[in-house]
Design brief:
Blueprint: H1 3-6, H2 10-25, H3 31-40, E1 44-52, H4 54-58, E2 64-71, E3 74-77, E4 88-89, E5 91-94, E6 100-108, E7 112-120, E8 126-134, E9 137-147
Antiparallel strand pairs: 1-2, 1-9, 2-3, 3-4, 5-6, 6-7, 7-8, 8-9
Length: 153
């Protein structure tokens, strides 16, 4: 059967054709479309309290407060950006049990690499871990976060 009989309108044929291309490129799965919905769970401003583990404390690491902005799947770390960690796209996943997590790896030319993971806890809070690799040392932190509304100045 000719496509002109199935799709008599040229505009409709074009849209339908591109839709088929997108579905084929995504491997005929909903996985490539789920990322935006998963990222939306974490969108916004977050205040985090990060606490080093015992080994990091022995290495001279202190607890710190950080403010994240997660927007369109990109994580910006307010305080860490002062150390050269630039905004970076995160990866969002949902496991078989329906738990959604996120992960991002940020790099600074002078301060090493951060790998930050997180998940939603009860209510609107988040929790997670930070692994900071710098100068051949690895420092681990646990964090708890809550939604944050910046004040106008």
């Amino acid at each position: 059967m000719r496509t002109s009989k199935l799709w008599p309108n040229e505009a409709f044929r074009t849209v339908a054709g591109w839709t088929l291309v997108v579905v084929a490129m995504c491997g005929a799965s909903s996985r490539c479309f789920a990322t935006a919905a998963e990222a939306a769970l974490f969108e916004g401003f977050w205040a985090l309290d990060a606490d080093p583990d015992a080994a990091a404390e022995r290495g001279g690491r202190l607890d710190f407060k950080e403010y994240f902005i997660i927007e369109s799947g990109v994580v910006t770390a307010s305080e860490l950006s002062k150390l050269g960690f630039e905004p970076t796209p995160a990866t969002f996943t949902t496991d078989a049990a329906g738990n959604t997590t996120w992960s991002v790896t940020m790099t600074s030319r002078t301060q090493g690499t951060l790998t930050i993971t997180g998940w939603r806890t009860t209510g609107s809070a988040i929790a997670g871990s930070i692994v900071w690799d710098r100068d051949g040392q690895t420092y681990r932190y646990a964090y708890a976060g809550r939604p944050f509304t910046p004040t106008e100045e």
